[in-house]
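Section 3.1: Structural characterization of target chains.
Under the original work plan, the team committed to producing a structural model for every single-chain target entering the pipeline before any wet-lab resources were allocated. The record below documents one such target. The sequence was received from the expression subgroup and is listed exactly as submitted; it comprises 297 residues.
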Amino acid sequence: MADLVVDYPEVRAVNGISFALEPGTVTAFLGPNGAGKTTTIEVCEGLRRPTSGTVEVFGHDPLHLAAEQRARIGVMLQSGGIPTSARAVEFVAHIASLYANPLDVNAVCERLGLHALGRTSYRRMSGGQKQTVALACAIVGRPDLIILDEPTAGLDPQARINTWELLAELKAAGVTVLLSTHYMEEAQAVADHVLIADQGALVAQGPLQELLSDGQGQLEISTPTTVDISALQSLLGASFQVSQRLNSILIAGAITGEVHRLVVDWCSSHDVIISGLQTNQHSLEDVFFELTGRGLQ
């Protein structure tokens, strides 16, 4: 995707978004409501025409994919797409019948707990149960690319963890996953790469660990030794803040492996006994706040 722009009558929903998915990885697309995530995903799915920019899925315009190319994509919409009278296992079996080489329906339904829904119709299911049925439909065709729009919205904590584990299994099988979510902890749990959007534009993107390491963190050194923190502050420089709390030295800043080694060597040369060493890196929530000046709501 390059320079994607999508305009609605009175607002620009997507403003110049560019990214590429690496095969066999999970990419989390993060941002608050109104950030342009769903619109961007709809363009990738061939459900919405862009105002400008270039989008390719398997090397082709998603608006004009051949049937065999569409069969390689599994889609979970944020809502809709399933008849209100449908029963879970029967509908997943129907979706599977549309593909040449689907996954085993019973195995998928067992994995996601859909047999327990019995003859319950879709209209009578809870929000989380509906999400699970939609997820099963997205994966049962054995796709190479899965696009999931807020797949864990409405799920209880255990169901969310089960979904995260399923995404890890899909990645291990070589499936590429694009996951739209506003849950930062979800991205940290499952993603290899992260896209962070705000007000229709990407404010950051890259490998998860790279984004987290770019943010500030804290190194906590537990020691019974009295420490001259001013000397350690001079060593590290103004980009770090050194303080002391009870029997701990706290160092705030961009905590890298090099900083670890520097501090440990300094402690050794100054006879500072280290009884504990802990690094607390910022979360994606912290990164988002640093980029936008506000929390993700």
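The chain has a mean pLDDT of 91.
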